[in-house]
User: Fold this.
Amino acid sequence: MFAVIKTGGKQYKVVKDDIIIVEKLDAEAGKTVTFDTVLMCGKDADVKIGAPTVEGAKVSGEVLEQRKGNKVLVFKKKRRQNYRRKKGHRQHETVIKITAIKA
Assistant:
């Protein structure tokens, strides 16, 4: 069984025991999170498509860790002006293991 969930402005196709990396959620490691915005779920040819979400469908998962992502460098430069700025950014992420899909 699979499901398509929406969190953090992005969509993820998940199955049981998947490990996904999403935008930061307010939950500590070891806690359970539930995703109510299930856009699609099904098994093989039996697929339910929501309009916009599937009624009564939920996906639950366990938070494995809170971490920062890889560093992204931002470099600004203006030619002939001796202007250079280098800045780094690391986005906060949450690592989740999908434990159950209820459709």
